[in-house]
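REQUEST FORM: STRUCTURE PREDICTION
Request ID: SP-0412
Submitted by: Lab K.M.
Chain count: 1
Length (residues): 202
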Amino acid sequence: MELDFDLILASSSPRRKDILHQMGVRYCAEPADINEDRIACEKPIDYVSRLASEKAICIQKLTKSVKPVLGADTIVVLGGKIFGKPKDLDGAQKTLMSLSGKLHEVITAVSITDGHNLMQGLSVSEVIFDVITLRDCKKYCDSGEPLGKAGAYAIQGKGAFFVKKIVGSYSGIVGLPIDVTYKLLQLYEVPLSWEVNNSGAV
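STATUS: Completed
RESULT:
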């Protein structure tokens, strides 16, 4: 029986699902349950690259998929310190106030494996925040949006209120760099739909 997907996404992220849908990829999602603890002295790029690869490998082994499996991970880095997903609203507030008025990096690694080979790409973008008032920070945290987001903000949501400038890949900051992903999908000959959905056109 022919499978109705061409790729497995090793994630439950709505943002990554949306981007794959935008790219015209037929996929199914299987979230990867891995240990995301950082190894001592592990550099940020090594850390995010390892997690993306481990997610892809985990789901490929679990499903024994004959289709490629894509894993991705995103981190925010400021002065060498990694800001992942906040554990609670207090942690989100501390993260946002640390980023306030500063330039930070958003690093997203993408890995694809078919069980035989593993290919990986990396996206590094810079984001400059305006100064965030404590009042606005609390209001944003109370919205719940920062939870589950690297760096405690969603640039595609109301977190964009704080963004002064970006240099690099917007989709990479969201969580799945389209340019990097496209090149990797080509290597594995994953078909893409080039049909344009104009249902929302004005």
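NOTES: Residues 7-187 form a domain with the Maf protein fold (CATH 3.90.950.10).
Reviewed by: T.R.
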